[in-house]
Structure formats: structure tokens, C-alpha cells
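Chapter summary example.
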Amino acid sequence: MFLKPLNTDEEKIAFLEVAHALIPLDNQFSEFEKNLINDFKFEMSFDKDFEPWNIKNIEDINPFLDVLKNREKEVLIGLLIELVALAKINMEYSEKEMEFINYIANYWNLKEKLPYIEDWVEQYLNLIRDLNYIFS
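The structure predicted for these 136 residues follows.
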């Protein structure tokens, strides 16, 4: 939803690296997460072969965050929304996922916006679940 502003392959790969580093933190890789990653690639028109790095420490994402950090604040907020959605898509938000998201918010100087982003994403995901129920 908010990935269209990523123009270069470097930015797209940086975002995907961060997203892939987030996924295993709750010790599961759900179908919802797989689908959302595919949605990210589709939205960014990214169809290249991509093999994510094996991120071992949270600081390992810094080079990828650096690629994106000079973007407009609105773009970074959109990226953070997408990452929070990825963390919450399976209806769990683990402590490790929260720490990871907090780290990114701090790194991009968006800490004050994070509670609002988390609340908005939760409301959005609930609406989507409600719609899925209505149409089922």
C-alpha cells in the first residue's frame, strides 16, 4: 500500500531485507506473511531473483535502513506501517518483533509516531478480517 515510492532496486531490496529479517522473530513463517511478502514484491514491481541475507543481529539491518533513511518522512512512515502490518498479520506481535520495530522507528527518528502506527495497523487488520468474514 505504501511501497510505490521505492524507485530503485537498491531501495526495494533494502526494504525486502528488513522485512525478511522481521519474519522469523516470532518463530513462524505463516501463510499470511508469505502472501504479504509477495504482495510487497508485486506492489514494488520487483520480479528479480532475491535471496535475503541471514541476519543474525539487529544491527545487521543498519546498512539496509541507511539506504532508506534519507527518504521523505512520509515515505518512512509508510514503510514502517508495512513492517508493523507484517509483524501483526498473523495476529501475534511478539516481544522480539516489537523490539525490532522499535529499533527501526528509533533509527528513522519516528519513535513518537510508532504508537499511532501500531494502533492504525491493528484497526486496519481488524477491518480486513471483518470483511473476510462478511464475504465468506
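To summarize the output: The CA atoms of residues 4 and 45 lie 9 Å apart.
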